[in-house]
From TrEMBL:
Name assigned to this protein: CHAT domain-containing protein
UniProt keyword Coiled coil present: yes
Keyword Cytoplasm attached: no
A Pfam family the protein falls into: CHAT
Signal peptide coordinates: none
Highest taxon, organism lineage: Bacteria
Residue span, CHAT domain: 595-875
UniProt keyword annotations, A-Z: Coiled coil
Coiled coil: 247-274
Species of origin: Aphanothece hegewaldii CCALA 016
SUPFAM superfamilies given in the database record: TPR-like
Length: 877
């Protein structure tokens, strides 16, 4: 995948923002009382300091002047100085303070009745919010609408920046507001809206911002191309012909990106704007293989020449860091300040000189954020060259500068992470663990911003965020295996490792869903659940060179077993197991159990005695990676399948397990189904012949029910039902697809329509009743993409998004005849007293395993291909 160098929150924003900057304000003359200090002189002195790069000096003088103007109640000069202070604080990376001064400017310009300035101030305040990662607030100021359904160009609120600019016929203000709005929509991942808005800005005759708008358009096309590539890969994993269509769309968007960025560069050349040229060039360079090698080489040389002529600025410093970290093979590192290129495009000496100069220039800017990145980049260079003494020296300075401003948490975690890697390489394990823990703590503080508000970085999660958690967990687990550690120390390290991985899983799920609606549920349910007798928890943690399987027993005791095979080997065995199960349907009598035995030996056999001595009857798996795509029920000990000995459930995180019910929930059910063949997004979904029989059986088990079938199963009827009645069970007998991203995760409904995971969440949560009163959501014809561990997050996401306690679903599509048998048995078992959901599913699966002993069940249903795909997610009681 081709990606820009770094993202808005996690690095250097070379995706040019459309800063509407009118220059430093000039004061109006005003009668003032005789004062020992002349505020007008202070303002002019501040202007001179600003122009020479002495930002702190300018701030000090302007704040003194502002205080005097406030005492004399001079709103005009208050507004002007507030604007200057806001822009300067923005310049030095303190966007939150900039927001405050923009508000002062807005209030005073409102008092003066200068609506044009109010509109322009709102635009710049919105840009400050975008810099803080609060793009939705930015959109609200610019237009007042955050919606994928409405046209923001037609529905802006009266007091928004864009509407004020239109009312005042302020063409410059309108272009700036549109450009900023397009940037904000891109930041929240709504790329089509961003493109529409930016294209509208480009159509306005005033050309002052055409280069910046073209640059912004180019960056949005890159993001949209990235999205199409991800969807293409997801479709290909599912075996869908859509993959080729999505790939073509990705290529078209990359081409449009290149055209827009070249247009931007040309306009900047005509305007002799060197900084703009550098931005456009760097974005073109980072299109990677989308530009020819010769052209890329020429652009790199041109960028280096521009760096030599540019005056000192953040753009110059970030540009130097970008060029120093370019790999030689034409690709781009997702996180250049955490990954080492195999070989750099520049020679080692050239890169070192460039970074050293960047550090020197950054020091002069008095911008702690820029200086922090320059220092950290130099430290990373020495880390990659294994000069750990210099690496740690510069990294510590980078940490100190990042720590000067609360807004730098997104960079602080980088330097804590870097410290951890360096200390680990030096063999200093305890300091390394402490540094990794600090990095995770920083990430936790900004998680909701970087994982939900800024959807720009959603798909870089594994390179930019996940490794921090995994490296911390790995070090702790290694310490737990250290023979010199006492038993309590080992137990503590394992517990802390599990806590780290649990936090990772929450972050990963939040990243997948793109919102934080479930964070309020993340209470500490772990102890309560673990104290339940006869229940054991299995955690799998896949690392680069080995995999840890951790057993947690009801008494709190924890045990660890290592699988000493690398990630590729482990994933290969997991995929083989899944494939053997799916293809097993073709075997009438025998089916392949080699992988089922191997995985049992990996995960269960090392703990058999512990499970027996603790009288365990229920196993709960908190899985990692591709382990989430396979059913544990089909593991085989040589004589029996695992489900024959234990009830089994899964959960994405123990923190998300909602409490069990106090009473049975056989009172009322909503039954939904689609029987007819359907075409969704050019993809064919076959007719489900046995759905009428399936829903009829569910009706028998829930006499108090409502049925919506085929055309009746639509959004409107679903919303109506949920608003009118409270249901404990929702049973959905239709195709459901789970893909790499939520856009590819949906349920087929009537009239060739679909209900996405986000729409399902919206429908289930909008009615006035307690959404958590839904005890069970059953999906009986699901499909997750083979080899795609993100797609399985969609299954967990359904439970989390909908706020239900348990989900019964399938990992892949199976014949609906066997589904009918299993679902019927499941609900009949569930109706019995003192039977948990996990036990009800187990009994239903065992009934199929013993099909040859029951003349009412097709003999071939004993094949695990028919019963194993069904899994229970969430509360297992």
């Amino acid at each position: 995948m081709k990606k820009p160098f770094l993202t808005p929150v996690l690095g250097f924003l070379f995706l040019s923002s459309l800063i509407f900057f009118l220059g430093l304000g000039r004061l109006s003359s005003s009668p003032l009382l005789a004062q020992s200090v002349d505020p007008d002189k202070l303002v002019l002195q501040g202007v001179q300091e600003y122009q020479t790069g002495d930002y702190q000096g300018a701030i000090a003088d302007w704040q003194k002047a502002l205080s005097i103007y406030k005492n004399s109640n001079n709103p005009s000069n208050i507004a002007i100085v507030s604007e200057n202070l806001a822009r300067t604080y923005q310049q030095i990376g303190n966007a939150s303070t900039a927001v405050t001064y923009w508000q002062q400017a807005i209030d005073n310009n409102n008092q003066l009745g200068d609506l044009q300035k109010v509109g322009r101030n709102l635009t710049e305040q919105a840009q400050s919010y975008t810099a803080l990662g609060q793009s939705r607030k930015s959109i609200n100021l610019l237009c007042g609408n955050v919606s994928s359904d409405l046209d923001p160009l037609m529905t802006c609120f009266p007091n928004s920046a864009l509407e004020i600019a239109r009312q005042q016929k302020d063409q410059m203000g309108e272009i700036a507001a549109l450009g900023s709005l397009g940037e904000a929509y891109r930041a929240i991942g709504q790329f089509p809206q961003s493109i529409t808005i930016l294209e509208k800005a480009a159509q306005i005759s005033n050309s002052s911002y055409q280069a910046a708008i073209s640059n912004s358009l180019g960056n949005t096309y890159i993001k949209q191309a990235n999205r199409w590539e991800i969807q293409a890969n997801s479709a290909l994993l599912r075996g869908s012909s859509q993959g080729n269509t999505f790939k073509e769309l990705a290529d078209q968007n990359y081409q449009k990106a290149q055209e827009s960025l070249k247009k931007s560069r040309e306009i900047y050349r005509q305007e002799k704007n060197l900084t703009g040229q550098l931005k456009a060039l760097l974005n073109l360079i980072q299109l990677g293989n989308q530009v020819s090698g010769t052209e890329r080489e020429t652009m790199i040389q041109e960028s280096l020449q521009l760096l030599e002529t540019l005056p000192n600025s953040p753009d110059k410093i970030y540009g130097a860091i970008t060029l120093a970290n370019l790999p030689d093979d034409g690709t781009n590192l997702t996180e250049p300040l955490a990954q080492c290129p195999t070989t750099r495009k520049l020679s080692q000496k050239e890169a070192e000189n460039l970074l050293t100069l960047a550090e020197k220039n950054a020091k002069e800017l008095q911008n702690t954020r820029v200086y922090s990145f320059a220092l950290g980049a130099l430290g990373h260079f020495y880390e990659c060259n294994q000069d750990y003494q210099k690496a740690i020296l510069y990294t510590q300075q980078a940490k100190w500068n990042a720590d000067q401003n609360q807004e730098n948490l997104d960079s602080l975690y980088l330097w804590e992470w870097q410290t951890g890697r360096i200390r680990e390489a030096q063999g200093q394990i305890e300091p390394a663990i402490a540094a990794y823990q600090n990095a995770v703590t920083s990430l936790e503080q900004i998680r909701s911003e970087i994982l939900s508000t800024e959807r720009d970085i959603q798909f870089d999660f594994r390179d930019q965020i996940e490794p921090v958690y995994r490296q911390l967990a790995q070090l702790r687990l290694k310490e737990a295996s250290n023979e010199s550690r006492t038993f309590p120390q080992k137990e503590q390290e394992i517990s802390q490792s599990l806590d780290t991985i649990d936090r990772l899983r929450l972050a990963e799920l939040q990243n997948y869903l793109g919102n934080d609606c479930f964070l309020g549920q993340t209470q500490t349910n772990q102890k309560t659940e673990l104290n339940k007798p006869n229940t054991a928890i299995f955690n799998s943690i896949i690392l680069d060179q080995e995999t840890a399987i951790i057993l947690s027993l009801p008494n709190g005791e924890k045990k660890i077993h290592w699988i000493f095979e690398n990630r590729t080997q482990v994933n290969s065995k997991i995929l083989s197991f899944r494939q053997e199960l799916i293809e097993g349907r073709l075997a009438i009598n025998d089916y392949e159990l080699t992988s089922a035995k191997l995985l049992y030996d990996w995960m269960i056999r090392p703990f058999e005695k512990d499970l027996q001595s603790n009288q365990i009857n229920t196993l709960v798996f908190v899985q990692d990676g591709l382990f989430r795509t396979i059913p544990m029920s089909a593991l085989y000990d040589g004589e029996k399948f695992l489900v024959e000995n234990y009830a089994i459930a899964l959960t994405p995180s123990l923190s998300l397990v909602l409490p069990e019910s106090e009473q049975k929930f056989n009172q009322r059910a909503l039954i939904l189904g689609v029987t007819q063949p359907t075409v969704i997004d050019q993809q064919n979904f076959d007719k489900l012949f046995n759905v009428p029989l399936e829903v009829a059986q569910v009706q028998v088990n829930f006499t108090n029910h409502k049925l919506l079938l085929d055309e009746a199963f639509n959004r409107e009827n679903l919303e109506k039902e949920l608003n009118q009645s409270e249901y404990k069970v929702i049973h959905i007998a239709t195709h459901a697809q789970f893909g790499t991203i939520p856009d590819d995760t949906f349920i087929v409904i009537g009239n060739n329509n679909k209900l996405t995971i986000k729409e399902l969440e919206k429908v289930l949560r909008q009615f006035e009743g307690d959404s958590q009163s839904i005890e069970l959501l059953a999906l009986t014809a699901c499909q997750t993409a083979e080899g795609d561990d993100r797609s399985s997050l969609g299954l967990a996401g359904v439970a989390v998004q909908a706020g239900v306690k348990s989900v019964l679903a399938s990992l892949w599509s199976i014949p609906d005849e066997s589904t009918l048998k299993l679902i019927t048995n499941f609900y009949q078992n569930l109706a019995k007293n003192n039977v948990s959901k996990a036990e009800a599913l187990r009994a239903a699966q065992i009934a199929l395993i013993r099909a040859k002993q029951d003349d009412k069940i097709n003999d071939q249903y004993d094949n695990p291909a028919y019963w194993a795909p069904f899994i229970l997610i969430g509360n297992w009681n």
